[in-house]
TrEMBL record:
GO terms for cellular component: nuclear pore transmembrane ring. It comes from Kockovaella imperatae. Residues 490-577, 788-869 form the Nucleoporin POM152 Ig-like domain. Residues 1-13, 20-39, 237-254 have a biased composition (Polar residues). This is Nucleoporin Pom152. Residues 583-683, 902-972 form the Nucleoporin POM152 immunoglobulin-like domain. The lineage of its organism: Eukaryota, Fungi, Dikarya, Basidiomycota, Agaricomycotina. Residues 196-354 form the Nucleoporin POM152 first Ig-like domain. Signal peptide: none annotated. One of its GO terms (biological process) is protein import into nucleus. Residues 1089-1160 form the Nucleoporin POM152 ninth Ig-like domain. Residues 53-144 form the Nucleoporin POM152 N-terminal transmembrane domain. Pfam families: Ig-like_POM152, Ig-like_Pom152_1, Ig-like_Pom152_9, Ig_Pom152, TMD_POM152. Residues 1-39, 237-279 are annotated as: Disordered.
Length: 1262
């Protein structure tokens, strides 16, 4: 042991390892004559570390190394299961390691001396002394660590592995020190680790984007070896073709050398970390770990190419490696076999596959199903639609299995409507190749219908927001996949014409329009002109803004017919406007001379106007030989008068030049001059309204109420004016308050439907004295509108609506509000409603044929349009479903039944929906007394109901159906089916009892059978060192069976019994669980035998009787010695009896434990012969589990037959331990071949020929 480890070393006074004196000494000044050079400073600056700190650092490091060395030496004596560490490779185990440690430690001290650390810099002489001590210390360590190796190396004892009594062995070995070797050779069998290959260890799914050029890599975990070649099955998911591919191991992709981005690390807290680099935290890594912990790996989305090289299993062992298989097409991968460079096959982990599907994607189709190509970044142009339209647009969604699509409709103002369409699948019949592939793995393109209602104007974008396939892969389409609609409002037009429009002769007038829904593009407005005399004419104009007008130059009726532009519009009421020609004004003059005191003092000029009040008359007054004076008079009525009373005497001439009314300006008059006149006056006061209105039902007379004053009898003259015509009428009236009826002209009569303006003006009144007076009272104006009210439906197309909703049937009414409408349904009792809007609605909720019966406005009864008086309303059909003809169900009374299936088998029932997609079917599922409610959603009319695959009786009560039109429709339909459990078999008790050779294969192993009895059990028996299985088929009626096979065992060794298959009365395939124990073993031992070491009665070396016991220990031997019978038990295969005196040694019988396999023995005697020798073939054989046994030869020297005993040793920790002993006898040849698959070191420990045995069994056991 080195001084650092605790040995005391005394240094001389000249040693540099000097202790500082406890008492200070005076330091002598340096002398120039001194021959002692000054001590060199330390190599490590003392400013960094003080000398004592440098010494402590050295002793700490060197002491830590020695402690680690000592622990590696004594650890195997303290525990048997030592995990190897980095220092285990440097453990002292032989002369070379002891020498290596000595050299290393001496070099450490030599290197430290160069640092010139005070008290730690030995001189060369002291370094030699330290080397001797270090050599002695490492020799002691060697002796403690490996005593067997120590004594073997110094030729004191034989082989190692002495066990706990190693310190006694050298005494025994002294006795055979000079004997020639009789047992030589050692053959080693090394069992290579069991090589496995596991495809897709995390059981994840994968997907390749349709436009991806990057391959996808599927991980394969290889254990204990590296593949040189792999072969795998590939089934294409596009056409179902099956192929086998072989790739070289060098073509497999390896993970990057740096830390993987998505490495899954789940080491427990406190585990050692290889490096000090911070682990990468990745969300996907955490998701996979959490899903694995919750057994939800199947719910994870598929791995894409970019991430396929970054996922590494979390529980990867040091003997395992991950290689990645490149795949560039959607397919299903199964490993067929894998071979390493030595030609050994890997064990393929069963039921492992890699499913590579195509990632979901989306394209757009138009309404006809034509595919619309969408660019990478180009935004699609808007499509034009009209308000009120609805349509179904289609998107192509591509993905594996049943898809779910989320969609949204977004307006320019940010308002959004979203929805989900589930159950998108294709129910077409697959080809024979594709039928072998589960539906959820097949990628197909589906048409996703979305019903879009354009209910208001603006710009809207409809798009798929996500597509999810059956493997939980989600695809989010880009903005280029939107369909943008520019919804235009429907134009509407009507006249802003509350009364007739007036047209002047030679001029034009405008008909104002009220327009709505006019977009950027102009619309075409079609109208019909009905002249007063002539045929109707159709005309059209372009309208582009709300305040448009129609310029007309002819009188008549103008009726709006239609308006159309980008969208078809509606004509609202009022849709007609009448234009009335206003004639130029005219005037009739009358003159009355004014008399006062029998003299003419002036003249009164009376005017009777035709035209539109007010009127203005321009005239000139000229006195004889005087100048003309221009004057004017204004009149608000159709009659008037002016009194011309000049201030001066003379002859006056009054010339009337121009007439102006409300419509015309300065119409030239051609009237003769008038003179002054005078006339006594009477008076009339007009009563009642001055504005009147007549309708189609108002009659042909106008009532005038007035009060007349004057001397009876009175004569009243009035003027009627209409359509440029007039007439005077004089009637006799009394002087009192009264009413008269004025008859309208024939052209304005109700019978002829005449309409227009009519006025009555009171002109003059004459009393009984003959005096006449012009009247200036207001004119009575009558507006005559003979148009009868009408009613019609704006749209008579049949309406199909959802039951429970109401339909607003638009009306088109003419006349004066309000209107009273009478209608009936299917000829039933009439109903009356009141409408205040000419474009009003009827709210209708029942189905049937609706018919308008009559209409009445505020004044008159009207007419019903015969062409638009009725229409039909019908309800949309309610959703329902039925089983498709291909469904394997039959009707049993009121219940549909499906034939039974086996547990785990996927089975679905095809359904056929009727109604408006998408559909949703709600049903109640009952099994094993538990009830739950579910729903099935489907976009197409054909769908599939996935039946449960769990064993038991299952019932499906279909409760209600939903579609786009109806949120709920009650159903009453029941489907039942049974699922049979799969049979299984497992060893519940392994065999624990050996059996004898040549007996029937019977044991205490038990097999438990699950399923429906009776069972058929198929077992396979593998003999020792054989790869062939011998099968047995057993019919069983119970659920438990104890091993009893009709097989006579002819070979000794370990027999393997495997459960191959099991079937029951249900006919379902077996179910093999991971927890099932599918095999057991049975040790078949030789029948108990005793073999003499020699076949002569003479003793070998004259001291012992030696026998070999064959079979499995312990043995019971019965023998007779010196006339006495003995019975002994031996646990050793060597049975010896010291021949202390002459006699007869007779073996009677030998048996195994509990008197099993008992064998009766005849006379058995021993003879003397030279000791035999045996030599085992040297070498090392490498095997893998499942390989054929390794064989090596054993050669003999002596006289046949030979018998020998060999041992198999294994390393337990750092020590060798014998784990098996076997004896082989009756070898007539000089060589023997041993076949074995058990790993270890094989050595012969004894040999026997015809006469003798070596080593001899002496009395002291040596």
């Amino acid at each position: 042991m080195s001084s650092a480890a605790g040995s005391s070393v005394t240094f001389k006074s000249d040693s540099p390892f000097k202790r500082p004196s406890s008492t200070p000494r005076a330091v002598a000044p340096p002398s120039s004559s001194s021959h002692n050079p000054a001590q060199a400073p330390t190599l490590i600056p003392t400013s960094w570390l003080a000398p004592y700190e440098q010494r402590r650092l050295f002793f700490a490091i060197f002491g830590l190394i020695e402690v680690i060395k000592i622990w590696d030496i004594i650890a195997p004596y303290l525990t048997s299961n030592i995990e190897p560490t980095w220092s285990s490779a440097f453990r002292v185990r032989g002369w070379w390691t002891a020498g290596g440690w000595t050299v290393s430690e001496v070099l450490i001290f030599a290197a430290v001396s160069l640092l010139r650390i005070p008290m730690l810099s030995p001189s060369p002489k002291q370094l030699v002394q330290l080397s001797g001590l270090i050599l002695l210390w490492n020799t002691v360590c060697w002796f403690v660590a490996e005593p067997g190796s120590f004594f073997t190396s110094i030729h004191l004892i034989g082989p190692a592995a002495l066990g706990g009594e190693w310190y006694w062995s050298w005494w025994y070995s002294l006795r055979r020190w000079r004997e020639p070797p009789h047992l030589e050779g050692r053959h080693m069998i090394r069992l290579r680790p069991f090589s496995t290959a596991t495809l897709n260890p995390l059981s994840l799914s994968y997907c390749i984007p349709p436009d991806s050029t990057q391959p996808l890599y599927v991980p394969i975990v290889f254990n204990n070896s590296v593949p040189d070649e792999i072969s795998y099955y590939s089934r294409s998911l596009s056409d179902g073709t099956h192929s086998t591919k072989t790739v070289a191991g060098s073509s497999l992709k390896r993970s990057s050398s740096h830390r993987p981005h998505l490495r899954i690390a789940n080491s427990p807290a406190g585990s050692p970390v290889e490096d000090d680099e911070d682990p990468v935290v990745d969300p996907l890594s955490a998701v996979v770990l959490r899903a694995k912990a919750n057994n939800e790996i199947a719910k994870l989305p598929s791995v894409k190419p970019a991430d396929s090289l970054t996922l590494i299993p979390p529980d990867l062992l040091s003997t395992q490696s991950v290689l990645y298989l490149p795949v560039d097409k959607p397919s299903i991968i199964h490993l067929k076999h894998a071979i390493d460079k030595l030609g050994d096959r890997f064990h393929i982990t069963p039921q492992k596959e890699a499913v590579i599907v195509e990632c979901p994607s989306a394209d757009e189709t138009d309404q006809s199903g034509r595919l619309i190509k969408i660019g990478k970044s180009k935004t699609p142009s808007p499509e034009q639609r009209c308000v009120g339209e609805d349509e179904i647009i289609y998107f192509n969604a591509r993905g594996a299995g049943t898809l779910k699509a989320n969609w949204r409709k977004r307006s320019g103002e940010g308002q959004m409507i979203s929805g989900t369409i589930e159950g998108i699948q294709d129910d077409s019949i697959a080809s024979d190749e594709m039928s072998l592939i589960p539906r959820e793995r097949i990628t197909k393109t589906h048409s996703v219908p979305i019903r879009v209602v354009h209910d208001r104007p603006g710009q809207f974008a409809v798009s798929l927001t996500s597509i999810t396939d059956s493997l939980h892969n989600n695809y989010v389409p880009g903005p280029a996949s939107e369909r943008i609609f520019n919804v235009l409002p429907r134009p509407m037009a009507k006249f802003d014409c509350k009364q007739s429009r007036e047209l002047l002769v030679g001029q034009t007038t405008t008909l104002p329009l009220l327009l709505a829904g006019i977009g950027e593009q102009p619309s075409d407005l079609l109208y019909t002109f009905h002249p007063v005399d002539g045929s109707p004419e159709e005309k059209s104009i372009k309208v582009a803004r709300r305040g448009e007008v129609i310029v007309v130059s002819q009188p008549g009726s103008y009726v709006l017919q239609s308006i159309s532009g980008p969208c078809k519009g509606d004509i609202m009421e009022p849709s007609s406007c009448r234009v009335q020609l206003i004639p130029p004004p005219a005037v009739e003059l009358s003159m009355t001379t004014l008399h006062e005191c029998a003299m003419d003092v002036g003249v009164t000029v009376g005017f009777e106007f035709t035209g539109s009040a007010p009127f203005m008359v321009e005239y000139t007054e000229k006195r004889q030989n005087g100048k003309s004076i221009n004057k004017s008079a204004r009149f608000n009525g159709h009659t008037g008068e002016i009194v011309l009373q000049p201030d001066q005497e003379g002859q006056y001439t009054y010339t009337f030049n121009h007439l102006t009314d409300a419509k015309y300006k300065q119409v030239k008059l051609d009237k003769p001059p008038i003179e002054q006149t005078v006339h006594p006056l009477a008076n009339v006061e007009l009563l009642g309204p001055k504005k009147r209105k007549l309708f189609a039902c108002s009659g042909n007379e106008v009532e005038l109420e007035f009060e007349a004053k004057g001397a009876d009898p009175l004569h009243l003259t009035y003027l009627e004016s209409w359509a440029g015509k007039s007439r005077n009428t004089t009637i006799h009236i009394p002087a009192r308050r009264q009413k008269i009826m004025v008859t309208l002209p024939p052209e304005l009569s109700a019978e002829r439907g005449g309409s227009g303006r009519y006025s009555v003006s009171l002109l003059s009144i004459t009393d009984g004295n003959g005096c006449s007076r012009k009247l200036s009272v207001p004119t009575v104006d009558v507006d005559i509108d003979r148009q009868k009210p009408t009613a019609r439906f704006a749209n008579i197309d049949d309406v199909i609506m959802t039951e429970g909703e109401s339909h607003r049937a638009a009306l088109r009414l003419t006349g004066m509000a309000p209107w009273s409408i009478l209608y009936d349904t299917d000829g039933g009792s009439p109903q009356r409603v009141s409408v205040h809007d000419p474009n009003g609605f009827l709210n209708l909720a029942r189905k049937g044929r609706y018919r308008l019966l009559e209409v009445r406005d505020e004044n008159c009864q009207g007419d019903i349009s015969q062409t638009a008086s009725s229409f039909n309303i019908d309800f949309k059909p309610r959703p329902s479903f039925s089983f498709q003809p291909s469904a394997n169900v039959i009707l049993d009374g009121q219940i549909w039944r499906h034939p039974g299936t086996c547990a785990g088998e996927e089975e679905d029932v095809p359904l056929l929906f009727s109604g408006q997609a998408p559909f949703e079917l709600a049903y109640r599922y009952t099994s094993e007394g538990k009830t739950s409610r579910h729903s099935l959603k489907s976009a197409p009319s054909r769908a599939s109901l996935q039946l449960s695959s769990e064993p038991g009786h299952h019932r499906y009560d279909f409760l209600e159906a939903k579609d786009l039109n109806y949120p709920s429709t009650r159903l009453s339909l029941v489907l039942e089916h049974d699922v049979y459990g799969r049979p299984s078999a497992s060893f519940t008790k392994p065999n624990s009892r050996p059996m004898c050779l040549d007996g029937l294969l019977q044991g205490d192993a038990k097999i438990r059978l699950l399923g429906k009895a009776p069972f058929t059990l198929e077992l396979g028996v593998r003999r020792p060192a054989s790869s062939r299985l011998e099968t047995f088929t057993l019919p069983l009626t119970s659920n438990e069976w104890t091993m009893d096979l009709p097989l006579t065992v002819k070979d000794a060794g370990r027999h393997e019994i495997h459960i191959l298959s099991v079937s029951d009365a249900s006919g379902c395939e077996q179910d093999v669980k991971d927890s099932d124990v599918r095999s057991t073993t049975m040790d078949v031992v030789e029948s108990a035998r005793i073999v003499p070491v020699t076949q002569v009665q003479d003793l070998c070396a004259g001291d012992t009787l030696d026998f070999l016991l064959q079979g499995k220990a312990p043995w019971t031997v019965e023998y007779e010695w010196l006339g006495k019978k003995h019975k002994v038990t031996s646990s050793s295969s060597q049975f010896s009896r010291y021949a202390e005196e002459p006699g007869t040694f007779i073996v009677k019988s030998v048996a195994l434990k509990d008197n099993q396999c008992k064998r009766e023995i005849s006379d058995l005697k021993r003879r003397v012969h030279p000791l035999p020798s045996v030599k085992v073939q040297e070498g090392v054989a490498h095997l893998r589990e499942g390989d054929d046994p390794a064989s090596f030869s054993v050669t003999f020297e002596g006289t046949p037959p030979f018998s020998f005993t060999y041992t198999r040793s294994e390393m337990v920790g750092s020590r060798s331990k014998i784990v098996e002993t076997q004896t082989v006898s009756d070898i007539m040849k000089f060589s023997y071949t041993i076949s074995s698959t058990s790993p270890g070191d094989y050595e012969v420990v004894s040999v026997t020929d015809k006469y003798c045995r070596y080593p001899r069994v002496t009395r002291d056991g040596s």
